[in-house]
Write the C-alpha cells for this entry.
Amino acid sequence: MKYIECSHCQKRYPSNSKFEEAARHKKSVRCSNCKKPFQIVVYEVKDGKTQPVENKAPRADERFLSTIIRKARID
C-alpha cells in the first residue's frame, strides 16, 4: 500500500499516480487536518515495514531519449 503522510500531524492519505508524479518534482500539498503545507513523500508498506519510495525525477537526457524513441515508433 502506498501513501503520503503529513510531516506535522502524521495524517496519512492514500497515494495515487498524481501524488507520485508530484513527489518526483518535489511538490508540496496542504494537509486537510492541520492546514500546513508539507513536501510530498510517497511511502510504501512492504512486509510490515514502511519505506519511502524513491522519488527521482527523470534526468533531462532520459526524457530526450524517450521522446526520440516514441517518435521512432510512430515513423
